[in-house]
Design goal:
two-stranded antiparallel ribbon; Aminopeptidase; globular; 12 helices; 14-stranded mixed β-sheet; alpha+beta; 2 domains
């Protein structure tokens, strides 16, 4: 525990402290019309070391900061052993960071998390991640005027300056791009050209087979997608593979909200060589679900999810051996052409070092940059 004359920082050890921890964000953003608050049960699950499989290879400590008996800040220190094994480093993370507009409080929260991580052998603190880069992460530095899509974060933009003032440095930027569907696209010269190109590619490569996922093969397909995705993303910055337990956890949760006809895969002689995975924007539904309790809002969710006009492309990948065959373009066109219920699509996350992928997608769809997130770190 750290303390000064004006504040006290404590590890969360009581139900009252836990309640304050989760309530702080709602307090800080209560006048913000854009932010989307998650169901409290799902928010707590992200930090549940018993139920969430992430904590089979990670540990964490939740901290709250009080001033004159009032909650003014929170942070979670996270040590992911699988990340450090994968990258052969000693990085510690911080996440779920929120604080009032007081640099003293921000400094103290970062120091509390740093101390906890240093005691466990870490020499660097990086974040924010909630609780890892497999979920939402980063400080929102551009694009605060529109609601975030599912599994993407929304933060106060002042955190950028305050984390830098606390001694952290921006080390990585990630982008979200959006595409607005328009019936005029079908008549545009670009779309006509792409439709023609699609037929030529399929004729040139008769071994290529495009498929849509079904309820019956969803689990098996997602396991195959994860296996290929681990190969495709293995060289990516900060990459950590999903464990079998995390994959099963993800599949179980996706089944509740997924629309099978928004997941497309490409096979070459029976081998999976490409995929595109989209999930409906549950945040759109969350923003419209009314009621003081989770169970009341949850009763409304199935109906609202069916109505959401937005989708987020969370995964797009092609086997390295097949990248030159136009498979990514085919998968994108297959998705947008065959699913007209979504009026807006978001492609995220895109590492700033991988913008060439966006340029390739932009040849298929006219994309607009919608949001920018930054990660920060410092030695400890």
């Amino acid at each position: 525990m750290s303390a000064s004359a004006s504040y006290t920082i404590k590890p969360v050890s009581t139900s009252a402290q836990a309640r304050d921890f989760y309530q702080l964000k709602r307090k800080l953003y209560r006048d913000n019309k854009v932010v989307v608050f998650p169901l409290k049960s799902m928010e707590k699950l992200q930090l549940d070391t018993t139920r969430h499989p992430f904590y089979q290879h990670a540990s964490r400590e939740m901290f709250v900061c009080y001033r004159k008996g009032e909650i003014v800040g929170r942070i979670v220190a996270i040590k992911d052993d699988l990340h450090n094994e994968q990258h052969n480093d000693r990085v510690g993370f911080f996440g779920f960071f929120e604080a009032i507009d007081d640099q003293t409080i921000v400094d103290a929260l970062i120091e509390a998390a740093s101390d906890w991580l240093r005691e466990r052998g870490c020499n660097l603190i990086r974040g924010p991640v909630n609780p890892s880069m497999k979920s939402d992460f980063g400080v929102l530095v551009e694009g605060a005027s529109e609601p975030p899509m599912i599994m993407t974060g929304y933060t106060l933009q002042r955190y950028q300056d305050q984390l830098e003032a606390a001694g952290l440095t921006s080390i990585k930027r990630f982008f979200a791009f959006k595409y607005y569907a328009d019936l005029a696209d079908e008549a545009s010269s670009r779309w006509t050209h792409l439709s023609s190109a699609k037929q030529k590619i399929l004729k040139r490569y008769p071994k290529l087979d495009l498929r849509t996922v079904s309820a019956e093969n969803f689990d098996k397909t997602m396991r195959d997608v994860n296996e290929l995705g681990n190969k495709v993303r293995s060289r990516g910055w900060g990459f950590v593979p999903l464990t079998p337990e995390e994959l099963d956890f993800m599949i179980k949760n996706l089944r509740r909200v997924i629309r099978y006809d928004t997941i497309h895969v490409a096979y070459w002689e029976g081998q999976l060589v490409g995929y595109i995975v989209t999930i409906p924007d549950i945040n759109w539904a969350l923003k419209r679900a009314r009621g003081p309790f989770d169970w009341i809002r949850m009763l409304q969710m199935p109906r609202l999810i069916k109505k959401t006009p937005y989708g987020r492309v969370i995964a797009l990948g092609v086997d390295d051996q097949f990248r030159t065959k136009g498979i990514a373009m085919l998968l994108i066109q297959e998705l947008v052409e065959n699913y007209t219920a979504f009026k807006k699509w978001e492609f995220s996350w895109v590492d700033e070092a991988n913008l060439k992928s966006i340029r390739a997608i932009d040849r298929t769809l006219p994309l607009l940059k919608s949001r920018v997130y930054e990660l920060f770190e410092k030695s400890i």
